[in-house]
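notes to self, project folder thing:

trying the whole complex as one job this time. last attempt i did each chain seperately and stitching them together was a nightmare. two parts in total, labels are on each line so i dont mix them up again. if this works i'll redo the older ones the same way
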Amino acid sequence: MHAFSELVVGDVVVAPFIVYALIALVIFLALRPILHLCGFGKLFSNPAIAELSLYVTILGLLTVVF
Amino acid sequence: MTSATITRPLSFAGAPASAWAFGIRVWLAVVVALASSFWLELEAPSTAALTGAILAAPTRGEALHKATYRLMATWIGVAAAIAITGVFSQARDLLLAAFVGWMGLCVYAAGLTDGNRAYAAVLSGYTVALVAIQQIDTPEHVFETGMARGAAIAVGIAAVALVNDVLTAPDSFPQVASRLAALHRRVRDYARPAPRDEAAEATAAGLLRDIAALHPEMASLATESASGSSRSAAARSAAVALVAEVHAARAMNALRANADPAFREMMAATLEGSGKPSPAAGVIGSPPLAAPAGLLLQAFLRRDAEVREALTALNAGKRPRQAWRSPLYRSQRIAAAAGVRAAACLALPSAFFVLAGWPAADASLSLVVLVIGLGATTPDPKGFTALAFIASPIAAVLAGALEFLILDGVNEFALLALALAPFMIGAAVLITRPNRLLSGLGRLNLIFILAIFAPSNPPSYNAQAFLVTSLFVCVATGLLLVAQILVPTESSERRRRWILASARRDFERVLSRRDRALAPEEAMFRDAARISQIPAAAAGHPDSGAMAEALSLFDRAAAIRLSRESVARLAETSLSSVAAEAREALAAEDTRRLRDVGLALKDAASAESALAEEISGGLMLAAAVIDAARHAAPPAMETAP
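result (full assembly):
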């Protein structure tokens, strides 16, 4: 069990989850061109759910590892 | 005997299954947004639910695109709210004046763009109303209100994205592709030889209008999936190539009138056939028209191939070989007039509320701002307000029925979710109706029902609050309608004059080479977007010539830009002096000189002779197109103010 670090902007405390969600979004958006090159969309019958699952996986990994 | 089976789309109660699926998605998005904001104990759960309703779009890409802009605009709006409150917190009237100015600015910005960008511009405006004006007596709470609103909107967006992903909302690109393909067919039909009359002008204007109208949807393809940005680029290229194809078709139609019958037949055969250029296309006899006409046919077929290539790339999710931008034209003057009008329309009800001194007038004022803002993104703001005026009592009655007849004091969330279903699904199904009145009423009711009902945890069931809110919603839309009737709108004639003046100004810039650094095809798309802004005039009306002149300027500017680009290829060769002369002839629109230069180029025996011959044909073509366009709309036409 590790302590989550809180981001403090000015005097406003930002919940750790928001920071994780944003970082996961940035990573996910950076991955998109690579996914497009790999033909990620063609591997699945429903690419939308596959992309959502990928985002959730990244978010989960970030939360567990950092 | 062969029989064709037509598969009828599944439908229920007069609406197709896809409409019901859309309704269920909207309802689920609202419920998920409400549930998560109750669970997170957010201060503004109804904003999260409203986000679910506002982002109700039948396709995934559109909803995500709008969501992105909604988040960005909220951020800008909250920042503006803090700034305006910080500066004017001691003087309420000045604060209102500053807000009116900010709203005018936002409506002006919305007038300069389209689609979800325009929505973002007006949202930046009315966020200030929702954050700063609602806290006008407690300015120290502006920051917290802004944060609460931002959090609720983020939760709402997450709910919409989740529901659309899990319930497999359809993608936007097949629709955009089929509309582009339909336009492609229409452009090919337009190019077919037919008895020409005045309707041809209207057809060309209609085609350009419909192509330019796809602009916002092409932008929303980018957010859809991993291949979204490639698809968006392909759709843009297809649209730009379609505009270039319309130009080629117009040039061909103009020249066809003068061409000999044998050539006309050959053209028809080529167009009816597989789309491959006929071997005879370039070598038909009978000068001087045949060479340009053959070249024109080749140019048309090249554009046709470009459109098909871009459409294939769009469907395959690949980046097109030729990626063009699709620059948008918007009239600064029309946008500025809309901004000033919006500020005036907001100032009148504000002054009324300040003088009346009613309590809770801030909520009513926020609604006025919301209707002004959303109306600014539609072609007819006054019509939108009238629709809101009709929708508000209906929504008040429905919200009352939901709160006091159906729910009537229950506390369970499951019952709230079930009770919301008929209202949300019904309104969302109405949105999908082709009738614009019904569709507008559906959209407004979806938003107004949630705004009046304002679900909260624990539920209040306060009859007095409900009656006051309903009354203020109706008063707000009524006041705004009165203000919009009192504040004059510029007439269609004036609008036409403004757009035509800008078209002439831009054409002067093309001649003097001070125009924007755009590829000729991109500039054509911008001109097409301008033509799409010209309000249609009835035949025989003194202004019905405006469209003809705009189309003539479109043709001439396109011919000059294309020739200038091809002549530029000669700059580094031994024929650079001829190229310089051609540029001068183009700048002066001197078609006789242009033909002379063309002939000189053809005769020039040099290493670049193949290139020179091609460019020579291009120049002759440009001369013919310019002459035909001038003939179609004499430049002396008077449209003085």
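what i see at first glance: Chain B touches chain A through 15 residues (CB under 8 Å).
need to look closer tmrw
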